[in-house]
Amino acid sequence: MTKATKHALTEAQKIMYASEKATNFRWISKIMASYSPHVLTSSDVAPVNIQSELAEIGQFTELAYSTVPISFILENLASLTVVDFPVEGYDALSESVLISDFRGKAADLHGFVVYRQHTKQLVVSISGTSTALQGLYDVWTSKHTHPSKKGKVHSGFWALYKGIRKFLFDGIRNGAKEHQVDELVVTGHSMGGAMSYLLMLDLLRLNDVVSPEMPLKLVVFGAPRVGDVQLAQYWAELVQDRKRNGPFREYSVKAYNDGLSLPHS
């Protein structure tokens, strides 16, 4: 695919991107990926009510980057959410019960599972790239056959996912066993979004993790592509099958130079 025409940023957009303080790995997308022919416009902006919903889930997404144990944060929310403290204004975290907090077997990738008591949501959050070693997995772009035999997956992402897969499954099963779960939410930023797609792909194709009637929601921010066209087609088929049994919602939030994830369903 030829490189798409570059579009100038507005002054507001320039200020927003210049204000980013955390390390991001958009440079990997710029080097390794092709440009999408689709240009984001005002028609792609989510409605205000959806923006509020995504902002709430985004608090859990960002928390996955924390080097402080999730248990400590949840136990000390009253102190940590005040002005000028680490999770200032993160009101969505209140009344959350920790199910599991883990580090993967490959590159120490962090993730956690919590239960939101007031919404009855089980939330799975997976960190994006936060170390140089994880960055090496990001650029391991050779293709690996997916277990479904329905396409191929990014080798580095698959290796990282295999390192957290059991922890994810155990956390989801334990959360569903211990609490009344009305919705399962899977979220991640950047490479964590790629992990979220691989997890949701498993949840859609396997019958031993969650029931076919469980409402599912995928919320990813700046997620790169995880597989080839055949895998994307398989994803679309699974999503359509799932929607016949129960609610399924997919939100993929994009910003300038973010990678392209699986196509919208």
Report a brief summary of the structure.
39% of the residues lie in helices and 17% in strands. It has 9 helices and 8 strands. The protein has helices at residues 11-18, 26-32, 48-63, 70-75, 77-80, 132-138, 155-178, 191-205, 229-245; strands at 96-103, 110-116, 121-126, 143-145, 152-154, 183-189, 216-221, 248-253.
Our estimate of the beta-strand percent is 15-25%
Total helices: the number is 9
Low-confidence stretches: 259-265
Topology, number of strands: 8
Give the H and E element order: HHHHHEEEHEEHEHEHE
Distance between the termini: 22 Å
Task: Provide the spatial order of strands within the biggest beta sheet.
Answer: 1-2-3-6-7-8
Characterization of this structure:
The protein has helices at 11-18, 26-32, 48-63, 70-75, 77-80, 132-138, 155-178, 191-205, 229-245, and strands at residues 96-103, 110-116, 121-126, 143-145, 152-154, 183-189, 216-221, 248-253. It has 265 residues and is an alpha/beta fold. Strands 1-2-3-6-7-8 form a six-stranded mixed sheet, sandwiched between helices. Helix 7 crosses helix 8. It is globular. Residues 259-265 have low confidence and may be disordered.
